[in-house]
Amino acid sequence: MKTALITGCSSGYGLEIARHFHAQGWNVVATMRTPNEDILPRSSRLRVLALDVTKPESLADAIEAAGPIDVLVNNAGIGLLGAFEATPMATTRELFDTNTFGTMAMTQAVLPQFRARRSGVVVNVTSSATLAPMPLVAVYTASKTAVEGFTASLAFELEAFGVRVKLVEPGYAPTTRFASNGGARMEGLIPEAYAPFAQQVFAAFAQPAAVTMEGDVAEAVWRAANDESGQLRYAAGADAVALASSK
Q1: In this structure, which long-range contacts are made by residues 142-150, counting pairs with CB atoms below 8 Å and at least 24 apart in sequence?
Q2: Among 117-131, 160-174, 177-191, 221-235, which is the least confidently predicted range?
Q3: What does pTM read for this prediction?
Q4: Backbone dihedral angles phi then psi of residue 27, each to the nearest 5 degrees
Q5: 173 to 7, 12, 69, 137, 222: CA distances (angstroms)
Q6: Tens digit of pLDDT for each residue in 100-113?
Q7: Does residue 13 have an active-site annotation?
Q8: How does the average pLDDT of the chain come out, rounded?
Q9: Catalytic residue among 140, 172, 194, 234
Q10: Cα separation, 56 vs 59, whole angstroms
């Protein structure tokens, strides 16, 4: 029986990915900064561990507690919506710490066991914001685009060791906690000069042509984790699929 370790499972995509893998009969190690076992099924095949991907000690403890795994799903991330001009560089670094460096650190931590076994899969969850320009998400897009470049290169690097590296690119999902997870860091990021433009953007966000559901992303991650082909990218959601096919 295979085991998947999934980051960022307290809500949204991560929570649904954990549920999906468990429903398919896998062992699941669901990680989150503040453990909450009540949101997941009670099962001998499912464990909840504390993990903050920005803290090396937390990461090391979680990897040790998890034991051998077959698939790592790097899903933990934070969102940011605002004008780049008004975004403090400290906030930019905070986003990269979680979305980019957290993904890289988790990947580096599991590679020794994957390489030694000559098997294993890393699935990195990014965003359809990497597929087409979108306003007011410059920093967020940059943090996810960096993961895309990292993943594509790493896939070549690890192919000789039988380790597969994949990307899942979710579309727009207003039901996720993108904004709420942004928290206080979003305050003041829409200066008065940007307000008229921002209102138009928000209006468009409120009436999307298509919406990506958590289940779409969970299914895409599942396919990526089990696909032994050389496919790198897996768009999740109708809008992401349309963007990916137009590239």
Answers
A1: 142/96, 143/95, 143/96, 143/99, 143/100, 144/77, 144/99, 144/100, 146/96, 146/100, 147/74, 147/99, 147/100, 147/103, 150/100, 150/103, 150/104, 150/124
A2: 177-191
A3: 0.94
A4: -75, 140
A5: 19, 10, 29, 14, 19
A6: 999 999 999 999 99
A7: no
A8: 93
A9: 140
A10: 5
Half-sphere exposure (CA, 13 Å, Cβ side) for 16? 15
Structural domain boundaries of the chain? Answer: 3-246
Task: Among 3.40.50.1000, 3.90.1230.10, 3.40.50.300, 3.40.50.720, name the CATH number for the domain at 3-246.
Answer: 3.40.50.720
pLDDT tens digits for range 76-86: 999 999 999 99
Contacts of 123 (CB under 8 A, 6+ apart): 71, 72, 73, 74, 166, 167, 168, 221, 224, 225
134: which residues sit within 8 A by CB, 6+ positions away? 141
Q: Which amino acid is at 115?
A: R
Beta-carbon count within 10 A of 88 CB: 11
Are the beta carbons of 76 and 7 closer than 8 angstroms? yes
Structure confidence at residue 7 (pLDDT): 98
